[in-house]
């Protein structure tokens, strides 16, 4: 795919909405495209996360390990989905396993590239910080709503 296609894809990702074309170009130029075969794991739960992925083509089934050590389906991610966004900011563990449900392609965004974006465009940091903070709040609220299931 062309650099312009990657910029267009990144512009659709909620975390990156509002970034200008130069900022998106920096990410797109430094990112790496990867083809993933059907049934191939993109990453596994509990593995270290040094990058995030944007799904550009295909779908990925997201699983979490249950107490018996078996994978349980949780969700499906399609084009435009950003997986492991917190990995862009700091070292974290993957919270789920992502397996290609069909042939797909992802854009790999390393943490170092994201940090370069923040260094070159400091104004972007406050915008992205508020979006990440809002995502964490929404996650916490969803977990609170589910608390009754676990007591």
From TrEMBL:
UniProt cross-references to SMART domains, sorted A to Z: cNMP
GO MF terms, alphabetically ordered: DNA-binding transcription factor activity
Pfam families attached to this UniProt entry: cNMP_binding (PF00027)
SUPFAM superfamilies: cAMP-binding domain-like
A GO-annotated cellular component: cytosol
Entry superkingdom: Bacteria
InterPro entries: cNMP-bd_dom, cNMP-bd_dom_sf, Env_Response_Regulators, RmlC-like_jellyroll
Organism name: Rhizobium rhizoryzae
Domain Cyclic nucleotide-binding stretches: 15-118
Source taxonomy: Bacteria, Pseudomonadati, Pseudomonadota, Alphaproteobacteria, Hyphomicrobiales
Protein name per Swiss-Prot or TrEMBL: CRP-like cAMP-binding protein
């Amino acid at each position: 795919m062309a650099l312009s296609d990657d910029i267009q894809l990144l512009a659709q990702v909620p975390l990156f909405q509002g970034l200008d074309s130069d900022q998106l170009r920096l990410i797109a130029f430094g990112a790496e495209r990867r083809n993933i075969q059907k049934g191939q794991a993109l990453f596994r739960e509990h593995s270290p996360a040094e990058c995030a992925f944007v799904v550009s083509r295909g779908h990925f089934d997201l699983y979490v390990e249950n107490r018996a050590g078996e994978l349980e389906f949780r969700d499906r991610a399609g084009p435009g989905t950003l997986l492991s966004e917190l990995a862009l900011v700091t070292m974290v563990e993957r919270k789920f396993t992502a397996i290609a449900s069909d042939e797909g392609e992802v854009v790999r965004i390393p943490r170092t590239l994201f940090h370069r974006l923040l260094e070159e465009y400091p104004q972007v940091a406050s915008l992205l910080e508020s979006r990440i903070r809002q995502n964490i709040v929404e996650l916490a609220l969803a977990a609170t709503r589910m608390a009754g299931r676990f007591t």
